Amino acid sequence: MINPKKIEELAKQLSDNLPAGLKQFAGEFEERSKQVLQNQLLKLDLVSREEFEVQQHVLLRTREKLEALQAQVNELEKRLSGE
């Protein structure tokens, strides 16, 4: 779900943009940046694209069933009020 390569690239970009006086800490900063990014991303309530599509399909089927049941209820109410 979370691409470690992208996190590494982002951490590298952050360390590359450090001011010249802090370049000696670039390696440590990059490593710490990766840890912070990974921890914060893991806190997010994310799902994979595949899981999202599965749930979207389930929701569509549920909605279709609900509409069919509502039509049945409407028809039964119509019959009862006609009697």
TrEMBL record:
Q: Chief subcellular site?
A: cytoplasm
Query: Is Cytoplasm among the key words of this record?
Result: yes
Q: Does the keyword Cytoplasm apply?
A: yes
Q: Which terms are listed as keywords in the entry?
A: Cytoplasm, Ubiquinone biosynthesis
Can you tell which superkingdom this protein's organism belongs to? Bacteria
Query: Where found?
Result: Cytoplasm
| Protein's recorded name | Ubiquinone biosynthesis accessory factor UbiK
Gene coding for it: ubiK
